[in-house]
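Appendix B. Raw example, untouched.
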Amino acid sequence: MADRPVQPPFAPTVSEEARAAMAPLLAAGSAPEMTATLMRNAITRKAVRAAAVNHLKPLNKSRAKRFDVAVSKDKVAGVPVKFVRRRGSDASADQRLLINFHGGGFMVDSGSETETIPIAGLTGISVVTVMYRMAPEHPFPAAVDDALAVYTDALSQRPATAIGIYGTSAGAVLTGQLLARIKAEGLPMPAAAGVFSGSADLALVSDCEAFLPSIMGARTAPDTLADYSAGTERTDPLLSPLYGDLSGLPPTLLMTSTRDQLLSQTVRFHLALRKAGVDADLLVYEAMLHAFWAYMECPETDDALAAQAAFFSRHLVR
């Protein structure tokens, strides 16, 4: 295997907390997502998924306490979900709902609670995180079908102006795919969408991914997602929305960082949305790793989560 690029030391603009969290990951040459390490060390896929969940339990617990949020499990339209709500909030008095799709390369759950607990706590908006079917057992479009089922159920109970959708990493990919599917189905668009460190192009390797160490060991994102894409043509607009008509999509917040392998893909999607006339904003955080807000505790994470919360609070109608 070829030597990986050596990343330079952190600039003085990076918080001490962020340096402390990222330095061991970079020094070990490991991927910024814990998923890659788990994939290398676990023997079976079941063990990988269990290890990912166990790895995040302490962070889930600390965030639930910090943001005063309760998490419960249920099903919506036959799809397993988690409901995340700020304690003491009255969901019946607030029609607003956020639908989240967790990260994890479409193989593991690496953020169903870490991505949702802070947003529910900061906004007071209930969040339902979709425990969609994953690859390789369930390739595309199974995850999109699950996401659409939950979104359609939400539409049956509230106006689209009260619904927002978002995801990180694989969940960001799924968010874009769901928007393309919603348009194809002729359904009302949600009030807002969050695409956080994702891609709308599963056919090509972007510049940042080619330059930085891979998120998933030695594999590129298209290689990693081969099981997910299965037999679908990689330029199919329902799989890679960048190749389709993006007009009519809702206001979208895109978020990434300068050491994020999917920085280029996020930027490309932002530019394509703007070109299509979509109200799209892009936030780029200095020196942070891929999807840092989902697993790192530092001032930069606080800023990113606050920005996500403010965006949804601004766009969703009660």
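End of appendix B.
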